[in-house]
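User: Sequence in, structure out. Go.
Assistant: Echoing your sequence, followed by the structure tokens.
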Amino acid sequence: MSISLSLAEQVRHDLTRGGALSESLPDYEERAAQVEMAELVAQALENSNHAVIEASTGTGKSLAYLLPIVRSGKVAIISTANKNLQEQLFYKDIPFVQQHIQDFRAALIKGMGNYLCLDRFDKENSDLLPFQRSPAFDRLLRFLQDTVTGGPGDDDSFNGDLDTAPFTLPGDIRARIAADSDQCAWSKCNWFGDCYVREMRQRAREAQIIVVNHTLLLLDAAMDGWLLPERDVVVIDEAHHLEEEATRAFTVTVSPGRVQSLFQQRRLKEHVDPLLFQEAGQHNVVAWDRLATIADPGFKNRALLTQPFQEGLHLAESVDSLAEEMKYRRPDGMDDKEEQLYDKLIKRARTLASDLRVAFAVQDLKSRVYYVEREGGPRGQDKGLRQLSVSAAPLSITELLQTQLFEKINTIATSATLAVGGDFGYFRRRVGVLNKVVERVLPPTFDYPNHALLYLPRGLPEPKFGADNRVYIDALAREMAQLVRASRGRAFLLFSSHKAMMDVYEQLRDMVDFPTLLQGDFSRIELIKRFRSTPNAVLLGLKSFWEGVDIAGEALSLVVIDKLPFDPPDDPVHEARVKLMKEANEDWFNNYVLPQATLRLKQGLGRLIRTKEDRGVMAILDARLYTKYYGSRVVAALPPAKKTMKIEDVERFFADEATAQK
């Protein structure tokens, strides 16, 4: 007689002794957090509840949500922060479950621009003269020929994803041959039968697990589920990014480059009145020239737009007129492909005109913030038109996510950093997860008390800004140098501002004898590669190194954070949100600013302990942990490592480590 197990009981059995994974996943007792998370996900699936789960690095979150979903038979979209994490999930974690639990179909979806367009590639190949052909392009041509003909480079796994090609293409070549929605004739294209994007979408429609990134998930939400396949559940991994990504997804941005890109389209030039086209071009130049004079972004590269900008609205009308002109001058005798591309260009022009109106009308200051941004260097450098952009960003994405996502589908949100002091209130308020929620902070997987030391020194000056910050910077550099000497390099020094990083770097390179790497000198990928391969290296980095960097072992033994990572007060979205909360008499600091900074701090410190064998020191050099009322709350939310304010304890920690290695 068989006993019917609930889904939660089934996944517990799978993960523990005697279960389906018992031989592949030993150390049952050490994986208690993973088992608990799998049970929570299973219960949420069975009861159609949302789940919000904080699970530290090392828990095995991917398996903990994949297993109950696969066992349930439900179709799931799994969304994570970026392409690297998508690929890890798809090429590593999912095959493990397919091999050890049961086979199922899975699909990886990226934006169209990541896939080779055979039509554009064929045209590029035909148009290039022999002397114009680069070695990289010829290499791609040979690779594609081999995968089709079964030559020495045959690789049946190539599915058009340019990131999976065995070599890197230069950006200019990739831009000319990658799929582009605006230039895609879809079923009218001669290559449609072999189209990599079509095949990717077909695999997704047939899959039980569909892996996307947050950008695609949020675009799908904005389009009422039209973009991605139907699903029963959505998993949001790295969910601490959700508000930021949603803000970006729902922000309207226009720029001279975007307008100029439309004006350069052959079909537009050929099918509108030349005088109308010339007039639109003049409106474009006048608008951006005028904008640069009335809303100069200055040395901070940003300026608020608080009044309707008439020249921009005139530009919107001109672009709309071009779309109308194309509609009424529609030529006869076009083939199906040309008709499709012609209609797409009209739609593209109308979309641009609409976005120009949204950005320049400045109509809804209660729900949006409007700002001008210069994407180039600081004041005094080239101020070419292409550097300017105007954005209309939502002040709150709570209602959007609540109505477009959480009220429509069962959702599992997880990350290593979602709770502040064990409370999920901040996350739930910001993203709109308000009803039918199971929430849990799982215990840490790693032995922080015995493997890590948290150094919080007293006596440092509080962070200063502007011209009078020299005393602060000098003290910061001395403290970091002392820490780096104690750790013998092997350190990440993380900064909240570019200026502080550069000021400390100028001093630090003369104070320590270890190889020093500086963000900006190389790409992020190259810096990580050099850090791993260079003994005793010290890396100075900004926001992109606070998370998503996984360096296990002795190569990284010290993480130092200069100060609490509050958003800069002049960030337009942050500033407008704070202003709105003040006007509503809300506790803007404790309910928004402080939780946001605390979660970022936890992400930064999370770079240190990545495996059960890792050891090291985490340091925060911000005196406000002692001088401000909120300092104790921040410290209470940090990993449960032993704490010290004495540099001698840090030196002893590393000395003991060196002795143990002998």
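User: And one key feature?
Assistant: The two ends are 59 Å apart (CA to CA).
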